[in-house]
Model the fold of this input.
Amino acid sequence: MVSLKLQKRLAASVLKCGKRKVWLDPNEITEIHNANSRQNFRKLIKDGYVIRKPNKIHSRARVNKRLDAKRKGRHTGFGKRRGTREARFPSKIIWMRRMRVLRRLLKKYRESDKIDKHLYHTLYLKVKGNEFKNKRVLMEHIHKEKAEIVRAKQLQKEGEYRRARVAAKRERAAAREAEKQKKLLGESA
Done:
């Protein structure tokens, strides 16, 4: 068996691949052995005596199957866990996600005039103070708060109306009293 080290190197260079990917036809050893230039190898490649081997297939089928199972919640028991709970899913990330979700909701509500800037500010601070565990709870609180504000306005309006009525009544009574006094003074004179 003749050494084809040079030939393999030249063939690899021409084929633009590694030496391990070069296949030399065992039936044409003598012709390949005589080839000592790149030009010769281009001809041998054209004739099919030197071929670039295809890439090996590295299948991901098993990996994909396992990932599908993991998405369903398999293979995630205590025996499969290496890091602590905090290392696997940090509470800081959970907190950041929650803050962003709630603050985004508040911003959206403020821009669409569902809440005014004062309510926005109080709710913003409450969100920061960990008062709402999720979006639903915050939305319920906003609805309650808005209903409370409407009720307070209604009560204020009713109070003003009542006060105005009482004041008018008092004025009428005072006018009546003044009228009586006038009559009494008129009779005595």
Notes: Residues 110 and 116 are 6 Å apart (CA to CA). Residues 135-188 form the longest helix (54 residues).
